[in-house]
Amino acid sequence: MSGNSGFDDIGAVASAVKANEQYATDIFAELRAGSLFGGGITRDAYGKGEQFAHDLVVRHGREMSLEVTHDAARNTYLTLPGRDRGLPSVIIGSHLDSVANGGNFDGAAGVIAGLIAVKSLVSMNFRPVCDVTVMGVRAEESVWFEQSYIGSRSALGQLSSQALKAPRIDTRKTLEDYIREAGGDPELIRRGQPFLKKEQVRAFLEVHIEQAPALVDAKCSIGIATGIPGNFRYPNVKVTGEYGHVGLYKKFRQDAALAAAEFALCLDRTWEEWELKERPMAFTIGRFHTDPKEDALTKVAGECTFSLDVRAYSESDILELHETVLGFAAEISLKRKVRFEFGATTRAEVALVNKDFRKGLEEIAHEFNFPFIRLGSPASHDAAAFAIAGVPMGMIFIRNENGSHNPAEAMEISDFLDATAVLTRWLHRELR
Ligand code: HGY
Ligand code: MN
Ligand code: MN
To answer: For the residues of 235-280, what is the DSSP string, one character each?
Structure first.
Protein backbone atom coordinates (compact mmCIF):
# COMPACT_ATOMS: atom_id res chain seq x y z
CA MET A 1 0.00 0.00 0.00
CA SER A 2 1.74 3.17 -1.10
CA GLY A 3 -0.17 5.20 1.46
CA ASN A 4 -0.89 7.59 -1.34
CA SER A 5 -4.53 6.98 -2.04
CA GLY A 6 -6.95 9.83 -1.29
CA PHE A 7 -4.79 10.89 1.55
CA ASP A 8 -5.34 14.51 2.31
CA ASP A 9 -4.83 14.81 5.99
CA ILE A 10 -2.03 17.32 6.40
CA GLY A 11 -2.21 16.63 10.10
CA ALA A 12 -0.60 13.26 9.40
CA VAL A 13 2.26 15.04 7.61
CA ALA A 14 2.67 17.47 10.49
CA SER A 15 2.75 14.69 13.09
CA ALA A 16 5.09 12.51 11.01
CA VAL A 17 7.54 15.43 10.84
CA LYS A 18 7.02 16.37 14.50
CA ALA A 19 7.78 12.76 15.49
CA ASN A 20 11.31 13.36 14.16
CA GLU A 21 12.03 16.34 16.39
CA GLN A 22 14.43 14.48 18.68
CA TYR A 23 16.07 12.75 15.73
CA ALA A 24 16.69 16.13 14.05
CA THR A 25 17.94 17.66 17.30
CA ASP A 26 20.37 14.79 17.73
CA ILE A 27 21.72 15.09 14.15
CA PHE A 28 22.35 18.80 14.59
CA ALA A 29 24.16 18.04 17.87
CA GLU A 30 26.27 15.34 16.21
CA LEU A 31 27.05 17.69 13.34
CA ARG A 32 28.14 20.46 15.69
CA ALA A 33 30.32 18.12 17.73
CA GLY A 34 32.12 16.93 14.59
CA SER A 35 32.57 20.40 13.10
CA LEU A 36 34.36 22.13 15.97
CA PHE A 37 37.79 23.27 14.88
CA GLY A 38 39.72 26.21 16.35
CA GLY A 39 36.92 27.02 18.78
CA GLY A 40 34.13 27.43 16.23
CA ILE A 41 32.21 25.52 13.56
CA THR A 42 34.40 25.09 10.50
CA ARG A 43 33.36 22.68 7.74
CA ASP A 44 36.16 23.58 5.34
CA ALA A 45 35.45 22.77 1.69
CA TYR A 46 37.05 19.41 0.81
CA GLY A 47 38.63 19.41 4.25
CA LYS A 48 38.06 17.46 7.46
CA GLY A 49 35.05 19.46 8.54
CA GLU A 50 33.05 19.12 5.33
CA GLN A 51 34.03 15.46 4.97
CA PHE A 52 32.73 14.75 8.47
CA ALA A 53 29.36 16.21 7.49
CA HIS A 54 29.16 14.11 4.31
CA ASP A 55 30.06 10.96 6.26
CA LEU A 56 27.41 11.80 8.85
CA VAL A 57 24.56 12.19 6.34
CA VAL A 58 25.70 9.07 4.46
CA ARG A 59 25.50 7.09 7.71
CA HIS A 60 21.98 8.38 8.40
CA GLY A 61 20.98 7.76 4.78
CA ARG A 62 22.17 4.16 5.02
CA GLU A 63 20.27 3.69 8.30
CA MET A 64 17.18 4.79 6.36
CA SER A 65 18.02 2.30 3.58
CA LEU A 66 18.44 5.09 1.03
CA GLU A 67 20.61 4.52 -2.02
CA VAL A 68 23.97 6.27 -1.56
CA THR A 69 25.88 7.64 -4.56
CA HIS A 70 28.53 10.30 -5.21
CA ASP A 71 29.50 12.19 -8.34
CA ALA A 72 32.86 13.39 -9.74
CA ALA A 73 32.92 16.29 -7.24
CA ARG A 74 32.02 13.97 -4.36
CA ASN A 75 28.63 15.53 -3.83
CA THR A 76 26.51 13.09 -1.81
CA TYR A 77 23.16 11.72 -3.05
CA LEU A 78 20.77 9.78 -0.80
CA THR A 79 17.85 8.44 -2.84
CA LEU A 80 14.41 7.15 -1.89
CA PRO A 81 13.37 5.13 -4.96
CA GLY A 82 10.11 6.21 -6.58
CA ARG A 83 7.41 3.98 -8.03
CA ASP A 84 8.58 4.81 -11.55
CA ARG A 85 12.34 5.17 -11.61
CA GLY A 86 12.37 6.32 -15.19
CA LEU A 87 10.70 9.61 -14.30
CA PRO A 88 12.69 12.82 -13.65
CA SER A 89 13.58 12.97 -9.95
CA VAL A 90 13.10 15.61 -7.28
CA ILE A 91 16.25 16.75 -5.50
CA ILE A 92 16.11 18.37 -2.07
CA GLY A 93 19.31 19.58 -0.54
CA SER A 94 21.85 22.24 0.22
CA HIS A 95 25.56 22.55 1.00
CA LEU A 96 27.44 20.90 3.87
CA ASP A 97 30.46 23.19 4.06
CA SER A 98 30.54 26.30 6.23
CA VAL A 99 32.65 29.41 6.48
CA ALA A 100 35.48 29.29 9.05
CA ASN A 101 34.20 29.90 12.59
CA GLY A 102 30.65 30.00 11.30
CA GLY A 103 27.32 28.53 12.36
CA ASN A 104 25.95 24.99 12.44
CA PHE A 105 22.87 25.62 10.30
CA ASP A 106 23.96 27.46 7.13
CA GLY A 107 23.51 24.82 4.40
CA ALA A 108 23.32 21.79 6.71
CA ALA A 109 19.77 22.62 7.82
CA GLY A 110 18.63 22.08 4.22
CA VAL A 111 20.24 18.64 4.00
CA ILE A 112 18.85 17.54 7.36
CA ALA A 113 15.42 18.89 6.37
CA GLY A 114 15.65 16.65 3.29
CA LEU A 115 16.51 13.63 5.43
CA ILE A 116 13.63 14.34 7.83
CA ALA A 117 11.18 14.87 4.95
CA VAL A 118 12.11 11.50 3.43
CA LYS A 119 12.03 9.79 6.84
CA SER A 120 8.56 11.25 7.45
CA LEU A 121 7.21 10.13 4.08
CA VAL A 122 8.55 6.61 4.66
CA SER A 123 6.92 6.54 8.11
CA MET A 124 3.63 7.36 6.37
CA ASN A 125 4.13 4.46 3.92
CA PHE A 126 4.19 7.10 1.19
CA ARG A 127 6.01 5.97 -1.96
CA PRO A 128 6.67 8.96 -4.28
CA VAL A 129 5.91 8.55 -7.97
CA CYS A 130 9.53 9.44 -8.81
CA ASP A 131 12.87 9.20 -7.03
CA VAL A 132 13.42 11.73 -4.25
CA THR A 133 17.09 12.47 -3.63
CA VAL A 134 18.60 14.28 -0.67
CA MET A 135 21.74 16.04 -1.93
CA GLY A 136 24.68 17.13 0.19
CA VAL A 137 26.45 19.72 -1.96
CA ARG A 138 30.16 20.42 -1.80
CA ALA A 139 31.96 23.74 -1.47
CA GLU A 140 29.14 26.29 -1.77
CA GLU A 141 30.93 28.82 0.45
CA SER A 142 33.00 31.02 -1.82
CA VAL A 143 35.34 31.88 1.03
CA TRP A 144 37.44 28.74 0.40
CA PHE A 145 38.25 28.81 -3.32
CA GLU A 146 36.65 32.17 -4.15
CA GLN A 147 34.48 30.47 -6.77
CA SER A 148 30.67 30.29 -6.80
CA TYR A 149 28.63 27.09 -6.54
CA ILE A 150 31.50 24.62 -7.00
CA GLY A 151 29.59 21.47 -6.01
CA SER A 152 26.29 22.24 -7.70
CA ARG A 153 27.89 23.57 -10.89
CA SER A 154 30.11 20.46 -11.04
CA ALA A 155 27.06 18.19 -10.69
CA LEU A 156 25.34 20.10 -13.51
CA GLY A 157 28.41 20.08 -15.80
CA GLN A 158 28.76 23.85 -15.50
CA LEU A 159 31.93 24.42 -13.52
CA SER A 160 34.61 26.29 -15.48
CA SER A 161 37.98 24.57 -15.91
CA GLN A 162 39.59 27.75 -14.58
CA ALA A 163 37.76 27.17 -11.26
CA LEU A 164 39.45 23.77 -10.94
CA LYS A 165 42.80 25.56 -10.88
CA ALA A 166 41.72 27.88 -8.05
CA PRO A 167 43.85 27.49 -4.91
CA ARG A 168 42.18 27.21 -1.52
CA ILE A 169 42.91 30.50 0.21
CA ASP A 170 44.54 28.95 3.30
CA THR A 171 46.55 26.05 1.87
CA ARG A 172 47.05 27.27 -1.74
CA LYS A 173 46.35 23.67 -2.86
CA THR A 174 44.15 23.63 -5.98
CA LEU A 175 40.52 22.63 -6.10
CA GLU A 176 41.27 19.83 -8.53
CA ASP A 177 43.87 18.37 -6.15
CA TYR A 178 41.32 18.46 -3.32
CA ILE A 179 38.67 16.81 -5.48
CA ARG A 180 41.12 14.08 -6.54
CA GLU A 181 42.19 13.45 -2.93
CA ALA A 182 38.53 13.20 -1.93
CA GLY A 183 38.11 10.40 -4.47
CA GLY A 184 36.51 12.55 -7.17
CA ASP A 185 37.40 12.98 -10.84
CA PRO A 186 38.30 16.55 -11.87
CA GLU A 187 38.77 15.46 -15.49
CA LEU A 188 35.07 14.57 -15.77
CA ILE A 189 34.21 17.98 -14.31
CA ARG A 190 36.64 19.74 -16.66
CA ARG A 191 34.91 18.02 -19.58
CA GLY A 192 31.60 19.44 -18.34
CA GLN A 193 30.16 15.96 -17.98
CA PRO A 194 26.95 16.45 -15.94
CA PHE A 195 26.01 13.92 -13.28
CA LEU A 196 22.59 15.66 -13.17
CA LYS A 197 21.03 16.26 -16.56
CA LYS A 198 18.34 18.96 -16.40
CA GLU A 199 15.79 16.79 -18.25
CA GLN A 200 16.25 14.16 -15.52
CA VAL A 201 15.52 16.57 -12.67
CA ARG A 202 11.93 17.67 -12.15
CA ALA A 203 12.67 20.09 -9.30
CA PHE A 204 15.33 21.28 -6.91
CA LEU A 205 14.02 22.42 -3.51
CA GLU A 206 16.25 24.01 -0.90
CA VAL A 207 15.44 24.74 2.72
CA HIS A 208 17.88 27.29 4.16
CA ILE A 209 18.14 29.60 7.16
CA GLU A 210 17.37 33.19 6.20
CA GLN A 211 20.70 34.57 7.47
CA ALA A 212 19.14 38.01 8.04
CA PRO A 213 16.43 39.27 10.49
CA ALA A 214 13.40 39.79 8.17
CA LEU A 215 11.58 36.69 9.52
CA VAL A 216 12.48 37.59 13.10
CA ASP A 217 11.05 41.09 12.49
CA ALA A 218 7.95 39.66 10.81
CA LYS A 219 7.48 37.08 13.60
CA CYS A 220 7.22 34.30 11.01
CA SER A 221 8.87 30.89 11.35
CA ILE A 222 9.25 30.54 7.57
CA GLY A 223 9.67 32.58 4.41
CA ILE A 224 9.00 31.63 0.79
CA ALA A 225 11.68 32.71 -1.67
CA THR A 226 11.01 34.78 -4.77
CA GLY A 227 14.56 34.86 -6.12
CA ILE A 228 18.28 34.61 -5.49
CA PRO A 229 20.57 37.54 -6.24
CA GLY A 230 23.21 37.39 -8.91
CA ASN A 231 26.60 38.82 -8.11
CA PHE A 232 29.98 39.86 -9.38
CA ARG A 233 33.00 39.53 -7.13
CA TYR A 234 36.53 40.82 -7.13
CA PRO A 235 38.26 38.94 -4.30
CA ASN A 236 41.49 40.97 -4.50
CA VAL A 237 41.20 44.57 -5.72
CA LYS A 238 44.60 46.26 -5.44
CA VAL A 239 45.01 50.04 -5.17
CA THR A 240 48.56 51.28 -5.74
CA GLY A 241 49.66 54.78 -4.78
CA GLU A 242 52.96 55.87 -3.33
CA TYR A 243 54.44 55.37 0.11
CA GLY A 244 55.30 58.73 1.63
CA HIS A 245 56.24 60.55 4.76
CA VAL A 246 53.46 61.02 7.30
CA GLY A 247 53.85 64.79 7.06
CA LEU A 248 53.53 64.97 3.28
CA TYR A 249 51.28 67.85 2.09
CA LYS A 250 47.88 66.71 0.79
CA LYS A 251 48.39 67.75 -2.83
CA PHE A 252 51.49 65.56 -3.13
CA ARG A 253 49.90 62.45 -1.68
CA GLN A 254 49.04 59.30 -3.61
CA ASP A 255 47.30 57.66 -0.72
CA ALA A 256 46.07 54.13 -1.57
CA ALA A 257 44.18 53.70 1.72
CA LEU A 258 42.19 56.93 1.27
CA ALA A 259 41.52 56.05 -2.37
CA ALA A 260 40.10 52.65 -1.34
CA ALA A 261 38.10 54.24 1.47
CA GLU A 262 36.65 56.84 -0.91
CA PHE A 263 35.71 54.05 -3.35
CA ALA A 264 33.87 52.23 -0.54
CA LEU A 265 32.01 55.38 0.51
CA CYS A 266 31.02 56.19 -3.09
CA LEU A 267 29.53 52.70 -3.41
CA ASP A 268 27.78 53.11 -0.06
CA ARG A 269 26.20 56.37 -1.26
CA THR A 270 25.00 54.52 -4.37
CA TRP A 271 23.44 51.86 -2.13
CA GLU A 272 21.60 54.58 -0.18
CA GLU A 273 20.28 56.06 -3.45
CA TRP A 274 19.12 52.60 -4.64
CA GLU A 275 17.39 51.99 -1.30
CA LEU A 276 15.42 55.26 -1.75
CA LYS A 277 14.44 54.12 -5.25
CA GLU A 278 13.54 50.66 -3.87
CA ARG A 279 16.11 48.97 -6.07
CA PRO A 280 17.47 46.10 -3.94
CA MET A 281 21.23 45.56 -4.05
CA ALA A 282 24.06 44.91 -1.63
CA PHE A 283 27.80 45.24 -1.61
CA THR A 284 30.32 43.92 0.86
CA ILE A 285 33.96 44.70 1.44
CA GLY A 286 34.84 41.75 3.64
CA ARG A 287 38.60 42.26 3.56
CA PHE A 288 40.33 45.65 3.59
CA HIS A 289 43.98 46.01 4.38
CA THR A 290 47.27 47.71 3.75
CA ASP A 291 50.38 45.62 3.21
CA PRO A 292 51.56 44.45 6.66
CA LYS A 293 55.16 44.17 5.38
CA GLU A 294 55.24 47.87 4.36
CA ASP A 295 52.57 49.75 6.29
CA ALA A 296 53.37 51.90 9.31
CA LEU A 297 51.98 54.58 11.58
CA THR A 298 54.19 57.22 10.01
CA LYS A 299 53.86 56.26 6.33
CA VAL A 300 51.26 57.26 3.73
CA ALA A 301 49.92 53.92 2.49
CA GLY A 302 51.25 53.14 -0.96
CA GLU A 303 49.12 50.03 -1.31
CA CYS A 304 45.68 48.85 -0.17
CA THR A 305 43.83 45.68 -1.18
CA PHE A 306 40.19 44.78 -0.57
CA SER A 307 37.58 42.20 -1.55
CA LEU A 308 34.34 43.22 -3.27
CA ASP A 309 31.04 41.35 -3.57
CA VAL A 310 28.22 43.24 -5.35
CA ARG A 311 24.80 41.60 -5.72
CA ALA A 312 21.39 42.52 -7.12
CA TYR A 313 18.18 40.91 -8.34
CA SER A 314 18.23 41.67 -12.05
CA GLU A 315 20.92 41.22 -14.67
CA SER A 316 20.48 44.81 -15.87
CA ASP A 317 20.98 46.09 -12.31
CA ILE A 318 24.14 44.01 -11.99
CA LEU A 319 25.49 45.39 -15.25
CA GLU A 320 24.65 48.94 -14.18
CA LEU A 321 26.39 48.45 -10.83
CA HIS A 322 29.43 47.03 -12.57
CA GLU A 323 29.68 50.19 -14.71
CA THR A 324 29.25 52.30 -11.57
CA VAL A 325 32.06 50.46 -9.78
CA LEU A 326 34.47 50.92 -12.70
CA GLY A 327 33.45 54.57 -12.99
CA PHE A 328 34.27 55.29 -9.34
CA ALA A 329 37.65 53.62 -9.71
CA ALA A 330 38.48 55.69 -12.81
CA GLU A 331 37.42 58.95 -11.16
CA ILE A 332 39.33 58.32 -7.93
CA SER A 333 42.43 57.13 -9.80
CA LEU A 334 42.61 60.45 -11.61
CA LYS A 335 41.86 62.54 -8.56
CA ARG A 336 44.31 60.77 -6.24
CA LYS A 337 46.91 59.66 -8.79
CA VAL A 338 46.54 55.99 -7.82
CA ARG A 339 45.93 52.81 -9.81
CA PHE A 340 43.03 50.35 -9.28
CA GLU A 341 43.72 46.79 -10.44
CA PHE A 342 40.58 44.69 -10.06
CA GLY A 343 42.21 41.33 -10.78
CA ALA A 344 40.37 38.02 -10.96
CA THR A 345 36.58 38.13 -11.00
CA THR A 346 33.71 35.69 -10.62
CA ARG A 347 30.09 36.05 -11.67
CA ALA A 348 26.84 34.36 -10.69
CA GLU A 349 23.58 35.08 -12.51
CA VAL A 350 20.30 36.10 -10.93
CA ALA A 351 18.00 33.12 -10.37
CA LEU A 352 14.20 33.31 -10.10
CA VAL A 353 12.12 30.81 -8.21
CA ASN A 354 9.65 28.75 -10.26
CA LYS A 355 6.31 30.57 -9.82
CA ASP A 356 4.24 27.37 -9.53
CA PHE A 357 6.56 26.05 -6.83
CA ARG A 358 6.35 29.34 -4.95
CA LYS A 359 2.54 29.33 -5.16
CA GLY A 360 2.38 25.69 -4.07
CA LEU A 361 4.67 26.30 -1.08
CA GLU A 362 2.59 29.35 -0.08
CA GLU A 363 -0.66 27.33 -0.32
CA ILE A 364 0.88 24.71 1.94
CA ALA A 365 2.03 27.32 4.44
CA HIS A 366 -1.58 28.55 4.52
CA GLU A 367 -2.82 24.95 4.97
CA PHE A 368 -0.59 24.64 8.04
CA ASN A 369 -1.54 28.14 9.23
CA PHE A 370 2.11 29.10 9.25
CA PRO A 371 2.40 32.88 8.85
CA PHE A 372 5.07 33.61 6.22
CA ILE A 373 6.49 36.40 4.10
CA ARG A 374 7.80 36.30 0.55
CA LEU A 375 11.53 37.01 0.49
CA GLY A 376 14.18 37.82 -2.05
CA SER A 377 17.09 35.81 -0.67
CA PRO A 378 19.81 37.98 0.90
CA ALA A 379 22.35 35.23 0.25
CA SER A 380 23.26 33.22 -2.80
CA HIS A 381 22.40 29.52 -2.76
CA ASP A 382 23.00 26.34 -4.77
CA ALA A 383 19.37 26.53 -5.90
CA ALA A 384 20.53 29.38 -8.16
CA ALA A 385 22.94 27.06 -9.98
CA PHE A 386 20.05 24.67 -10.65
CA ALA A 387 17.75 27.42 -11.91
CA ILE A 388 20.49 28.80 -14.18
CA ALA A 389 21.03 25.27 -15.54
CA GLY A 390 17.32 25.10 -16.41
CA VAL A 391 16.06 23.07 -13.43
CA PRO A 392 12.96 24.65 -11.82
CA MET A 393 13.64 25.46 -8.17
CA GLY A 394 11.96 26.62 -4.98
CA MET A 395 13.25 27.71 -1.59
CA ILE A 396 11.85 27.79 1.94
CA PHE A 397 13.59 30.02 4.49
CA ILE A 398 13.81 29.27 8.19
CA ARG A 399 13.76 32.10 10.72
CA ASN A 400 17.12 32.30 12.42
CA GLU A 401 18.48 34.64 15.08
CA ASN A 402 21.87 36.38 15.00
CA GLY A 403 22.36 36.32 11.23
CA SER A 404 24.95 33.93 9.83
CA HIS A 405 28.61 33.42 8.95
CA ASN A 406 29.32 33.86 12.64
CA PRO A 407 29.39 31.51 15.65
CA ALA A 408 26.26 33.12 17.17
CA GLU A 409 24.09 31.83 14.28
CA ALA A 410 21.01 30.26 15.89
CA MET A 411 17.88 28.40 14.75
CA GLU A 412 14.87 27.11 16.72
CA ILE A 413 14.09 23.44 16.04
CA SER A 414 10.37 24.33 15.95
CA ASP A 415 11.00 26.74 13.06
CA PHE A 416 13.10 24.09 11.33
CA LEU A 417 10.22 21.61 11.70
CA ASP A 418 7.74 24.11 10.22
CA ALA A 419 9.90 24.50 7.11
CA THR A 420 10.41 20.73 6.94
CA ALA A 421 6.67 20.12 7.22
CA VAL A 422 6.06 22.44 4.24
CA LEU A 423 8.75 20.62 2.25
CA THR A 424 7.33 17.21 3.20
CA ARG A 425 3.81 18.21 2.33
CA TRP A 426 4.98 19.57 -1.05
CA LEU A 427 6.56 16.19 -1.86
CA HIS A 428 3.53 14.35 -0.55
CA ARG A 429 1.12 16.51 -2.60
CA GLU A 430 3.12 16.70 -5.83
CA LEU A 431 4.52 13.16 -5.98
CA ARG A 432 1.57 11.01 -4.99
O1 HGY B 1 27.69 34.37 -0.94
C2 HGY B 1 26.73 33.97 -0.28
O3 HGY B 1 25.75 34.66 -0.07
C4 HGY B 1 26.77 32.55 0.27
O5 HGY B 1 26.73 32.60 1.67
N6 HGY B 1 27.94 31.84 -0.17
MN1 MN C 1 24.37 28.79 2.66
MN1 MN D 1 26.93 30.78 3.73
So the answer is: EEEEEE---EETT--GGG---HHHHHHHHHHHHHHHHHHHHHTT--
Q: pLDDT tens-digit profile of 3-50?
A: 454 446 789 999 999 999 999 999 999 999 999 987 789 999 999 999
Of all protein residues, whose CA lies closest to atom 6 belonging to ligand 1? Answer: 141
Cβ-proximal residues to 263 (8 Å cutoff; 6+ apart), any chain: 239, 328, 329, 332, 340
C-alpha pair distances (Å), 428 with each of 180, 190, 247, 299, 425: 38, 37, 72, 66, 5
Which residues in the chain come in under a pLDDT of 50? 1-3, 5-7
Q: Which residues pair with 339 in a beta bridge?
A: 240
Query: Ligand 1, closest atom to CA 229?
Result: 3
Q: Please give the C-alpha separations between residue 106 and each of 96, 287, 428, in angstroms, as whole numbers.
A: 8, 21, 25
Q: Which ligand is nearest to the CA of 109?
A: 2
d(CA 383, CA 204): 7
Residue 99 C-alpha to ligand 3 middle, in angstroms? 7
pTM greater than 0.85 (yes/no): yes
